Every structure is written in C-alpha cells, then in structure tokens.
TrEMBL record, chains A, B:
The lineage of its organism: Bacteria, Bacillati, Actinomycetota, Actinomycetes, Kitasatosporales. Keywords: Cytoplasm, DNA-binding, NAD, Repressor, Transcription, Transcription regulation. Coiled coil: none annotated. GO terms for biological process: negative regulation of DNA-templated transcription; response to redox state. This is Redox-sensing transcriptional repressor Rex. Belongs to the transcriptional regulatory Rex family. Modulates transcription in response to changes in cellular NADH/NAD(+) redox state. It holds the Pfam family Put_DNA-bind_N.
Amino acid sequence: MATGRTHRPANRSRGIPEATVARLPLYLRALTALSERSVPTVSSEELATAAGVNSAKLRKDFSYLGSYGTRGVGYDVEYLVYQISRELGLTQDWPVVIVGIGNLGAALANYGGFASRGFRVASLIDADPEMAGKVVAGIEVQHSDGLEQVIEDNDVSIGVIATPAASAQPVCDRLVAAGITSILNFAPTVLSVPDGVDVRKVDLSIELQILAFHEQRKAGELSDEDAEELPQGAGEVTASPVAPPAASVTKRGSGSGKSPAGASGGTSGRNGEPGSDGDVPAVMPA
Amino acid sequence: MATGRTHRPANRSRGIPEATVARLPLYLRALTALSERSVPTVSSEELATAAGVNSAKLRKDFSYLGSYGTRGVGYDVEYLVYQISRELGLTQDWPVVIVGIGNLGAALANYGGFASRGFRVASLIDADPEMAGKVVAGIEVQHSDGLEQVIEDNDVSIGVIATPAASAQPVCDRLVAAGITSILNFAPTVLSVPDGVDVRKVDLSIELQILAFHEQRKAGELSDEDAEELPQGAGEVTASPVAPPAASVTKRGSGSGKSPAGASGGTSGRNGEPGSDGDVPAVMPA
DNA sequence: ATGTGTGAACATTTTCACAGCG
DNA sequence: CGCTGTGAAAATGTTCACACAT
C-alpha cells in the first residue's frame, strides 16, 4: 500500500473502518445542506443531530480522517465538505452505466443525487430493442450490444444493475469482463464476481422484511401470536412457487397506534459479500 | 423434518441479533429458490453459498432460531422456509402504502418481491392531483388527502416514502400520526420519528458513494492520487447548490481492467438510525 | 469555558474449531 | 463419517469520559 504519507495528523494511517465509510455520505449530506445555508461552522453535536447519529460516533469517525476540527469551536463546514468529498473520491468524476431501464432504472437515471455528487450517467443500457433510442432523463437509451464499447470509451468503472433477477448475473459478467470493478445491484440475486470487484446491493423486499420482523415483535408483545414451534407435520406448509409461504392473517388484531414495549431504534442493516449462484422468485420491473 | 425438538432447543429465548435478522431474508430467498426446484434438503455449506455468506455465519444465525437441522444431513428446505417466514412475520399479510408515485414509487409498486412475500400494496398515494386516478401496477393512485383514511381502513402499519426529499418529513409525520409504526424511506433525508417507530432507509446515492470510496482506493494504490491535505484556503471549495463539490478529473488515469493490490471483499454497509431534521440537495423522481 | 480528539470500557458480530448427534 | 450446534477467541464497532487545545 503506497502509504507514503508518513506525516499525518494522528490516525488516518491506513484503513478507515467500513462502518465509518458508510456514514461519511451521511455527514456529507448534512454538511452540504449547512453549506447551502451558508453556515460557517458546526459542532459535533449539531452535525450529529443533522446526520442522525450521536456525537461521540461522529467525532470518532472524523478522528479516522484526521483532526479537522477546532477545539472549543467545532468544524469548518466548507473544509469538512471538501475533506469528506475527497476521502470518498467525489472530487473526481465517476462515469456510471445503468443497465436495465425499467421503472427502477429510469428512477435511478432521473435521481438527482447521482449527478449531484461526482457521478455522471455515461449511458443507459437496455436489452429490449424497443427501448433503444428512447430518451430517459435526457439520455438516449442504448441497446445492450453496445455495452462493452460504452464502458471502454468512457472508462467506466461503476455499473448499476437494475434488470430482472434472471438477467443480473449475465449482465454482471459482461460488466466485469468489460472492466467494471464496482457494481451496485438492485436485482434480488446474489452476484458472483471475481476478487477485486466490489458489489453492493439494495434489495427493496429485504428491507421490508426486516421491518416486518420488528413490526411483528411490537404486536406480539402480549398477544402470544402464533402457536409455538411449528404447526406440526412440517414439510407441507407451502410448496406453491412464488406464492406467500403460509396463511394470511391480514395483520395482527391490535389496533394501529403505538405499542407497549419500545423495540424502537433497531435500525441497521448490512449488505453481504459476493457469492455464487442465486435465482429468485421475485422479478424486478426491468 | 418434525425433528424431535425437545421444545425450545437451546437459544431462541429472546432477541435475535440484528445482524442475523438482516440476513434471514437472504436465506429465505435462497431457500425459496431451492424449494421451487424441489430440493428436499441443503447443507449449511450449500445454502450459505447460495445466500452469499459463509457457512459458519449461517449456522450461527440459525442457532438463534433453534435447532432446525439434522446433524450429518442438513436442513429440510420446506421446514426452514416456514420457520424463517414465521420468524420474519411473513406468514401474515402486511398491507403497505406507498407514498410518492414517481418513477421510483411506480417501480416499487410493480416490484414483484413485494407481493411475493406477505406484502400487499394497499394503496398508492401521490400529492399531485394529476396522478390521482391513474392506474399503476393495477392499482389506482389516490390523492394524499385520503392517506389517513386508507391507513385506518386497511389497518396499515408499514409505509414506504418515495417522495422528493422536501416532502419526506411532512409525509412521515402524517403516516406516524395515522398510526404507522414502520417506515421504509427512499428519500435522501434523515427522518425524525417518535420512539416506537422504526425507520429503515435506502439511499441510492449513498451506496454509490461507498463504492466510489473503494474504487478510489483500488486506483490510488500507487498513483498517490490527490495532493495531500487540502488545497488550502478552504471555505471556497464549492458552494454551488446541488452541484458537484469540486473539480472534475473524469476518473483517474488508469486503464480500465483490474487493479494492482486487491482491495477485494470490502463489501458491507449499514444503515443508520432515526434522527431529526435534514434536508438535502438532491431531489428524487417523485 | 467549550467542544474536540482519543484511550479505554463495553457491546456486537464474525470466525474458529470441535464435541457430539444421527 | 458428516454436518450441525455452539462455546470461546478474535475482530469490529460503539459509548464513555476526560485531558487538553483554543
């Protein structure tokens, strides 16, 4: 690791913790908002609140980047915006290709957050010949055939997959073969990629399922809910493909409002690593 | 397998770790696929591979649910599907409202993964009168005015926010006031909610930023990249609203393909907790 | 005074490695 | 013998609390 930098405020020697990296965008967002309001400085307390974390965590996070604050005062907003942007690599332009221009792909293409931070949609790709030529978010959709060419011409290293689950792996393979080393996957599938390629995934239904888990807890605090273990004679609960596993209770009997025991905060999730096969029931828009 | 199950095998007393909960949907997806292929049993190794995790983690995760496997054999697919579904609360029907029917909202409404697992779109809501009446994913979009009514009528407890950032908090407040206790937020904003309400967020641009961070690392292994600290005279890096922070280097000079040092795996992220205010540059589709 | 920066305590998660059930 | 289930170790992440720079 060309960690040439022998001099360094304090930390910042090597590796910033993943957990910290994952929060930097959050801080950046809050800081950008402050910057727009021309706020010159913020305390860790204020910024933490705006970013939705606690101040101790925020200070610890910043300590990994270096000592960018002023004791007794706080942090210089503009300066921090710059430092974090640089740390995240947003001071450079990142061309991105989006594959699969269905509702989701279109939403992504139109998403302001992309363009607003160093990301530039280099191309929109779709396998459907019908889509080719159509203009989405001001960009002409291209047919999959040109995928490799676009990646090479624009030196793209980040690809977004918004195709149906079944096409995800094939598309992924082509992206990787064409030189892409970072993939954001929206298809509900585990992508298998070679070493050196990063994959992050966003799975809408997984998030909902996690919410359902907590929701169920809130409801079942007293109600006792389901039986206990299993309804006996397992193995026959449901075998119908792509259909809801079991019964349909249409929510628990409780009213709506609050719930007894808190079970509040519990918000946090994690994305996995690459893997291998994986085909799933659900199908995405396309 | 109606395993003898001595009743509450071992763990499973209370709280399943959050990290485990977040992976259950992953296992469920892999299991559902196996179920569709009529595979009767799987070993932790096979299932782990299909889910994109390692077997030790998977076994540990399952141990929190109870002893649902058979030593020397593996796990009964159907049985596990049922157990996990039940644990996640998917054996019941969860009505969901989606607010903000732009590209993203439409993509969500059409998303097969929702319907396929206990989630039912009870209503699509949009603030734009023009949208009211239009049919998306077979459901008629309703104007925001009816929000509270819909939630009450269908006893909805989960809401999805896919509105522009500026509307997110107001919408959130209404959802909460109407009795919703779980929110999936796609708007790039920190939502502030009372205790007892869960918020999970999905931020497209944050994921990309994390990828950019790793991508930058891969490239900068030897190149030395940017200068060092700051370009001095901070405070003027950029102040333009909703515009790229700094320069535009259009990626680093490297070619496309692989990169020297690995910097492989590094895939994992985390979502934050609820917070307070927060308004941001980017704007979502709507 | 005030609020950062951080060592150290605490908590959670992951990985190891192996006893023991089928 | 093979594979689960799980204590115990290691690694990561979070929170505390306070010295100390401004």
